[in-house]
Amino acid sequence: MDRKLRLLIFVIIGLLFFSFASVLLFGGKQMTTKVLIQTNKGNITLELDDKNAPITVNNFLSYVDDGFFDGTIFHRVIKDFMIQGGGFTPDGLQKKTKQAIKLESNNGLKNLRGTVAMARTNIPDSATSQFFINTVDNAFLDYSPGNPGYAVFGKVIEGMDVVDLISQVKTQSKPMPDWPSEEIIIKSITRLS
Asked: Where are the beta strands (DSSP E) in the chain?
């Protein structure tokens, strides 16, 4: 048998073995990235959807890897809606961000309780670092024809009790509406996988 043909057969067998092994190990599911949000109220673990929101996940992880979120706060809390963070320091200063990203809201993911999505302005492709965690199902934030929606890119897999605790804090209108009366500090966000 020709050497090149043997090598090709060996490569094909190797790929088939790897595919079979990945199905056994991961149940055929897409591997995902997990991150840990450490706050002064407790920890929240997110599972990011690398497959359905690759641009958004890569953007979020670039901020994680830079340590950008360390020492920021959850600056917007609206009971029975969501908690938002990732852009302000406790003194109310907004951090300088990277370029805005393309909106990935039409990815099949829904703004359900416990999902994490990107905050943005009224301009669809304006998300940078700020994100929010839905505390209830928010279907009106989902993509639909005529509604660009908000891009979901992951979900809480541990610590929803912490999210709920944060969602109950009292808020004030300074320095902006829905600002928590007590500091909800994001100590760090780090990769787990």
From this structure: 33-39, 42-48, 72-78, 82-85, 115-118, 131-134, 152-158, 171-172, 179-180, 185-191
